[in-house]
Amino acid sequence: MIPITVPQSLSKITPFVRRAEELDRIRLHHPECRVVAYYCRNYAAGIAFTIATTDDEMECLDKILAQIQPCGESICGVFTKVESYKICRHFADSKFSKADAEDRLGHADKNVAKLFYASATFYEMLTQFHTNEDEEGGGEEEEGGGEGAMKEYGNEQEEENNRRLYAKHRAVQILRAIKDGRTVSPGRYKEEDDGFLIIHELYEVAPSSSSATTTTTTTGEEGDAGDVTIETIAPHVTNATPEIQLLVRMLRVENNRYKTELQQQSQSQQSSQSLSHSQKIILTNKIEQLKELQQKTMDQFKEIHIKYRQVQKERDELRQEVNLYTGTATATSTTTTSQQQQQQQQKYYQTKSISELQTLESKLRTQLEHIISTKESKLKAQIEEEEEKNLCVICQVERKRMLLMPCRHLCACDTCGKMLKKCPLCRQDVKERINVYS
C-alpha cells in the first residue's frame, strides 16, 4: 500500500499508521501481520474521526478508511473479535518479550528502544477491544464468541497498560542514556524484577547498618548474591504490604530451588568424575579392539586384491590366445575360399572353346573402355568446375588472386580487384585488398 502523509495536527495517529505500513511489508511471510495492521489502522481511524476538522485531516482519514475497507470483510469475516484480540495480543507480547529479553541481557541499543516503543503502540492499539466492550456493556454476542466473550479478558487490560507504560518509559531511558553517553543498565520487568526494585527501595530507607546496605546494593548489581539480598532484606519488610511480603517469600523459595539445583549439579559432576577412570579403561579397550579388527580387515583386503590382480592377468592371457586362434582360423578360411574360387574359374575357362574366349575378351575390353571414358569425362568436368570456381567473377579469364577486406571474399583477379570499390558478392565497401598466391 502507498504510504500516507499524516498532517502534524494528527500526530497522535502517526505511530499506528507507520506500524501498519511496516507490517504490510512483511505480511507475506507473517500472515498475522494483516490482522494487526488492520486493527492499527482501525484504531488510528477512530482517533482521527474524533479530531479531524480541516480538509487535510479529512483527506488523511479518507485514505486510511480506503485502506481499511478491502481488508475489513476478509478479516472480520474469518476471525471473531476474540480471535482477533488474541492474535493482536500475542503479537504485542512477542515484540515486548523480544525487547525485554535483549534488555535483560544488557544489549540495549536504539533498536531495542524502537522495539519497546513499537510494543507500546501495539498495546495501546489493544484498548479498542476493551473500550468497545465497556461502551456496549456486553450486549449481544457474536457468532463464535463476541462482546460477551471479551469479558474473560477484562483482567488483561491492567497488564497491557502496565506493559505499555513500562515499554514507553524504558524506551525513553535507553535513548537518554545513549544520548548522554552512559552505559545502559539492564532493565527488569514484572513479578520478580518489579519486586526487586520495590524491595530495594524499602531496604535503602529501612533502619540498617551502612555496611549491610553497601553489601546488598553491590551484590544485587554485580554479583550473583541473590541470597544476600533476600536474607538481608527480609527482616525489614515485615511492616510492608502483604504483596511485598509474599514477593519476598517467593524470592526465597526461588533461591532455595536454585541452591538445590546447584547441589545436584555438583553431585552429578562428582559422580561423573568418579566414574571417568573406569569409563576411560573401557573406552581404551574398545579402541584397541577396533584397531585390531581394522588391521585384520586391511590384511584381508590386501590378499583379496592380490588374488584379483592374478585373475585379471590370467583372463587377459586367455583372451589373447582366443584372439590368436580365431585370427588364424579366419585367415585360413579366407585363403581356402579364394583358392576354391580360383580353381572353379580355371575349370570354367578350360571347358570353353577359343572362339567363346575371344568373344568374352572383346566384351570385357569394350566394358573396360566404357568405364575408362566415363571416368575421364567425370574428371574433366570436375577440373572445369574447379577452374570456373577459381576464375574471377568479373572477367571470367584470370584466376582469383585478390582478397577483399573486411568481408574476406576471394572473388576477383589482380586487375579487377584494384578497380572494385564494393564486394561483388556481399556489396560491402572495400577498405583493403590483399594479394593471395596459391
UniProtKB/TrEMBL annotation:
Q: Does the keyword Zinc-finger apply?
A: yes
Tell me the PROSITE patterns matching this sequence.
ZF_RING_2
Give the matching InterPro entries. Answer: Vta1-like (IPR044538), Vta1/CALS_N (IPR039431), Vta1/CALS_N_sf (IPR023175), Znf_RING (IPR001841), Znf_RING/FYVE/PHD (IPR013083)
In which domain of life is the source organism classified? Answer: Eukaryota
Task: List the residue ranges of the region (Disordered).
Answer: 132-161
Q: Where is the composition biased (Acidic residues)?
A: 133-145
Keywords from UniProt, A to Z, are: Coiled coil, Membrane, Metal-binding, Zinc, Zinc-finger
Provide the coiled-coil residue spans: 301-328
Give the location in the cell. Answer: Endomembrane system
Q: What GO MF annotations does this protein's record show?
A: zinc ion binding
Quote a single Gene Ontology cellular component term.
Answer: multivesicular body
All copies of domain RING-type, residue ranges = 392-427
Q: What's the protein here called?
A: RING-type domain-containing protein
